[in-house]
Amino acid sequence: MLSAPHASAIERNTSLHIHYRLDKGMMDEAAAAVLGTHDFAAFMASGRPVDDTRRTIYCSEWHQSGERLDYTVEGSGFLYNMVRILAGTMLDIGMGRLEPDAMRKALESGQRGDAGPTAPAHGLTLVRVVYDDFDSGNYISQQ
């Protein structure tokens, strides 16, 4: 995503443009709060019943290069719209719309209303999928 006063014509379809200045430190804290095994029911789109909403997050971090911010998340699996809702919640924390402990509160309550909005999908990129006997990164590098 781009945190800049003006949108980029080149990246308008591949990056979310945020007009506000973001507090990356607050977003880093929010990203760290989801590390480990938690019940992510609050970060799942409604209407998608699943047997178990517990997931393990191994990596959750923001990287900044100039006006560009990238969120990287790795986990044991993801619920429907989970990554978009995580990103939307962290963006609201970074803009000051939500308190810094909103991530923890949403994890504890399990209520969708306690999490932030669902971030738009443009800019979301699936980089790699790993199963016990398959790593898409190996497949891609061999092409």
TrEMBL record:
The keyword tRNA processing applies. Its EC number is 5.4.99.12. Residues 30-132 form the Pseudouridine synthase I TruA alpha/beta domain. GO terms for molecular function: RNA binding; tRNA pseudouridine(38-40) synthase activity. One of its GO terms (biological process) is tRNA pseudouridine synthesis. Keywords: Isomerase, tRNA processing. Belongs to the tRNA pseudouridine synthase TruA family. This is tRNA pseudouridine synthase A.
